Amino acid sequence: MAGKIVLCRCEDVTLSDLEHSVSRGYRDIEEVKRYTGFGTGPCQGKECLAVVALQLARITQQHPSAIPPFTSRPPLAPTPLKLLAKDPGAHRFADETDEGED
Amino acid sequence: MQGANEDEEDESRADVSGEIRLPATLEGRTGNVPEKAEIAIVGGGVIGLSIAYHLARRGLTDVVVLERGYLAEGASGRNGGGVRQQWSTEINIRLMQESVELCRRFAVDLGVNVWFRQGGYLFLARNAKETARLEKNIALQNRCGVHTRMLEPKAALDIVPELDLTGIVAASYNPSDGILFPWPFLWGYARQAAAHGVRIFTQTPVGGLEPQASGGYLVHTPRGAVRARRVINACGAWSPRLAELIGVQVPTWPIRHEICSSEPLKPFLRPMVSELSSGLYCSQSMRGEIVGGVSLPGHGSTYRMGSTLEFLATYARRLVRLMPVLGDIKILRQWAGPYDQSPDGNPILGAAPGHPDFFLACGFVGHGFMMAPIIGKLYAEWLTGGTPHEIFVRSPLARFADGSGAHHEKEDFNIG
User: Tens digit of pLDDT for each residue in A16-43?
Assistant: First the structure.
C-alpha cells in the first residue's frame, strides 16, 4: 500500500520510498530530500514538503514542529533563461566587449 | 576479503506491521562513537566514503567515519557530476582514465544506480590561444590513450546541432568522458562500507584531536571520544580547520562556485558542453535537467554558500548565446558549493610533516568528486600495506614549505 501512496508528484516519491530512507538512517529532511529526490522537481517542494514532513514526523515519532523545512532555492518560480539573460547584472567577459557581439 | 554476495544483501523486509525495514547505513542519532578504531575518517563526503569503502573491501573494517552534518552536505552534494579525462597533466589524465572505468562498473560493484552516462565532453574555443591550449592537452591525452580529437566548428554541430557557432574557432571532443548523479554515488559507498562493518556517524563534529603517547589520536566528539591509530582529514574545503586542531597549516581556501538546474527535458544533449572563455559548462543529466554553471570572478575566500542573481544572469546570457534554443527552458533552482582551492591546483595527500598518523586527502579544486573513485582505491591500497602510488609521492603538504613541488607541472584545466 505504502508503495502506492505518492508524496511527491513531480519526482514520483512514495510513502514507501520515505520509509526506505528512514530505515537506512537518512532521516533528516535534507537527507530525505537527497536520498529520495522529493522536492527537486518543478514545484521545488511547494506541494510536497509539508506532506513529507508530516509523514516523516509520524514515522520518526517526532512532533511536526521538530522538523524544519529544507533550504529553499531561488528562483521563487521556474524562470526562463531568456528572461534571466536580459538582466543587466550579468558579468561581461573579455570576449563580449565588442559592439555588436550580442 | 569479503565475498561479492555480501554486496548484494539488500532485500526489503516487511515486519508484521507492514513497515519496511532495511539494514541501516548510518548509525542512529544517539549513542556513542566506539572507544577505539584503527582509522577515523573525518568528513562524510565522497573522498572519505570512497576511502572507507575501499579500506573495508581490503579487509580493514575497523573504521569510523565522522561527519559534522549529513552525507553530501558539502561539495560532494553540490557539484555538476562531470567525469572527464581531458586534463593538462599526465598524472591527472591517467588517474581519470581509471576513475572513468570505476564509474562504469559502479552500479554493478556497489549495487546502486548512479545515472552514469558517457556522452563525452565538448570544449569550445573562441580564440587562437584557447585553441593552442586544447591542442597541447590533446597531444598529451592521445599519448595516454585518451581518444580526444580536435574538431572544426562545423563538426561540433554533428554532436550538438543546437550550437550557435558565431565566434567559435575550434572544439575538442572526447566521447568517453561522462556525467553522473552525485548523491547516489555517496549512498553506494556508504551502504557498502557499512555492510562491511564501517561505522558512519552523521551530525558528529570533531571538536578536538588529542595526540597519544603511543601514536594516533583521541578524537573528541559530542558523542564521546574514539581512540584512532590513524586519522584521515577528508573535510574538503573545511580541511584547514580540522588540521588546525593539531597545529598543522593546510594552505587551501574555500572558493564559492554557483550552479543551477533546469526543468527536466526529453534527452537531446549528449555531451557536457564547455566554453573556455567564460568557464560556462552545461550537461543534461539522466533526470533530463540541464545542469550547469559559469566562472564568476571576485568571490575570494568564503564559506558563505548563498546564491546570486549575478550568477544566474551571467549563466543565462552565456548559455543562450551559445545555444539560443535553450532560451525558453526554465531554471528550477540554483545553489552553491565550495572548491577546496590549493595554491598549485593539485591535491594534498599523505601524512602531514611531523604527524605520521594524520593523513590529508584534500585540495582537489573542484574535481574531487571525479577523482574520488580512484583516489579512494589507491589510498586504501597504500594504507593497507601497498606501495604508495606516484600521486602520493608528488602531493605532500611539505611541497609548499620546501619548494619540492616546484618542478611538477601545474594543473590549470579547472573549469566552472
Answer: 999 999 999 999 999 999 999 999 999 9
In chain B, whose CA is at the least distance from the CA of A25? Answer: B26
Res B416 pLDDT > 80 = no
Q: How confident is the model at residue B13 (pLDDT cuts 50, 70, 90)?
A: low
Closest alpha carbon within chain B to A31: B70
Q: Would you call B181 an interface residue with chain A, using a CB distance cutoff of 8 Å?
A: no
B21 touches chain A (CB under 8 A): yes
Cell output for A83? 528572461
The closest CB to that of A89, out of B12, B309, B319, belongs to: B309
Q: What is the assigned CATH class of domain B118-177+253-341?
A: alpha beta
Instruction: State which residue of chain A sits closest to B125, comparing Cα positions.
Output: A95
Cβ B319 vs Cβ B326: under 8 Å: yes
Chain A residues close to B257, C-beta within 8 Å? none
For residue B383, the SS3 value is: helix
Share of chain B above pLDDT 70, in %: 94
Question: What is the predicted pLDDT for the residue at B130?
Answer: 97
* Pairwise CA distance, residues B370 & B372, whole Å: 6
Predicted confidence at residue A3, as pLDDT, reads 86
- DSSP label of B198: -
Phi, psi angles (nearest 5°) of residue B286: -65, -15
Burial class (CB in 10 A: 0-12, 13-18, 19+), B186: buried
The distance of A18 to chain B (nearest Cα, Å) reads: 10
Round to whole Å and give the CA distance between B163 and B169: 13
CB B366 within 8 A of CB B252: no
Evaluate whether residue A36 is within a structural domain.
yes
User: Model confidence over B93-116: pLDDT tens digits?
Assistant: 999 999 999 999 999 999 999 999
Lowest mean pLDDT across B2-16, B35-49, B225-239, B382-396: B2-16
* Adjacent-strand bridge partners of B219: B209, B226
Show Cβ contacts of residue B39 under 8 Å, excluding neighbours closer than 6 positions.
B55, B60, B62, B63, B64, B228, B229, B230, B231, B232, B383
Closest residue of chain B to A43, computed from CA coordinates: B332
Q: CB of B73 within 8 Å of any CB in chain A?
A: yes
Q: Which residue range is the domain that position A41 belongs to? A: 2-71
Interface ipTM: 0.93
Check if B393 contacts A (Cβ < 8 Å).
Answer: no
The residues, ordered by sequence, that sit 6+ positions from B91 with a Cβ below 8 Å of its Cβ are B390, B391, B394
Nearest Cα residue to B220 out of B245, B193, B247: B245
Residue B220 phi/psi, 5-degree rounding, is -90, 135
Residues of B in contact with A70 (CB under 8 A): none
Q: Check CB contact of A9 with chain B, cutoff 8 Å.
A: no
The CATH number of B4-77+183-251+345-402, from 3.50.50.60, 3.30.200.20, 3.30.2010.10, 3.30.70.120, is 3.50.50.60
Q: What pLDDT is stored for residue B368 in this prediction? A: 97
Q: What is the grid cell recorded at A28?
A: 533528516
